[in-house]
Amino acid sequence: MKVGLLSESPADEAALRILLEALLGESVSVVQPPLRARGWPNVSQVLGPILWHLQFRTDAEALVVCVDADDSTVHEGDHGDPDAFHPKCRLCLLEMVIRKTRKRWKLPEGRRPLHTAVALAVPAVEGWYLAGRDPEVGEATWRADQAAGHHRYTRRDLKIRVYGTRRPTLEFETRRAQEEARRLAKDIALLETLFPVGFGYFARCVREWRREER
Q1: d(CA 124, CA 38)
Q2: Alpha helices per DSSP H over the chain
Q3: Whole-angstrom Cα distance, residue 34 to residue 97?
Q4: In the prediction, which pLDDT does 172 show?
Q5: CA atoms of 127 and 138, how far apart (whole Å)
């Protein structure tokens, strides 16, 4: 399958490709978008132009987007439903960008709309990499602490637990991301259990692609 990947860093995209292949059960060929993103605000800014480019200028079949939640609201609901929109939920905000971008299109006859799937790493992608290794890490813990106004760990703590430093080189960060993604790909249900909103929603969207093609 030919897929465009959009995230906050190349290291995230390297891991995302492995996890996507585990969900699809097949290899993925990456179609490189014309723009790169660095950080949350930039992802939301370039998403529309990248979606348009992949749809009309490439033979890509899908676009996958992944961002960190950081300290934003992680709400439960159908993020693709405008009636369930939460203005502080990054999943909802990215889905809104996708909807608004598509409303401006008129696809050529016979051309399928690009599949899309959005993932939210709570509070950061390093939390995923610790799934099954650190029992303290997961959406439930983070959200409970967020509601209580204090956290048992921070995003900085997660980086140290995964990389041994707060500032890993991109090469080392990518290698560790791929190592943990390969481990998790063998038990993808673990991520869905520990991160049911951010990863679970993403997994459901990806699996829906197959049903849409029938």
Answers
A1: 14
A2: 10-24, 40-57, 90-103, 125-129, 139-148, 155-163, 170-185, 188-194, 198-213
A3: 18
A4: 97
A5: 7
Query: What was the pLDDT predicted at 186?
Result: 97
Residue 17 neighbours by CB under 8 Å, 6+ apart? 3, 5, 28, 30
Q: How many domains does the chain have?
A: 1
Crossing angle for the helix pair 90-103 and 40-57, nearest 10 degrees?
30
Contact status, residue 152 vs residue 99, Cβ threshold 8 Å: no
Yes or no: say if 74 and 197 are a contact pair by the CB < 8 Å rule: yes
- 70-91 in b/e form (b: 16+ CB < 10 A) is eebebeeeebbeeeebbeebbb
Domain that includes residue 38, residue range: 2-213
Burial category of 171 from C-beta neighbours within 10 Å (exposed 0-12, middle 13-18, buried 19 and up): exposed
Q: How far apart are CA 42 and CA 79, in angstroms?
A: 20
DSSP states along 48-64 = HHHHHHHHHHS---EEE
pTM of the entire structure?
A: 0.91
Say whether pLDDT at 211 is over 80.
no
- Burial class from Cβ neighbours inside 10 Å (0-12, 13-18, 19+) for residue 41 reads exposed
Q: What are the structure tokens assigned to 22, written together?
A: 């585990």
Pairing of strands 115-121, 29-30: unpaired
Contacts of 98 (CB under 8 A, 6+ apart): 47, 51, 116, 118
| 25 Ramachandran zone, left/alpha/beta (phi>0; psi -120 to 50) | left
**Which amino acid is located at 80 in the chain?**
G
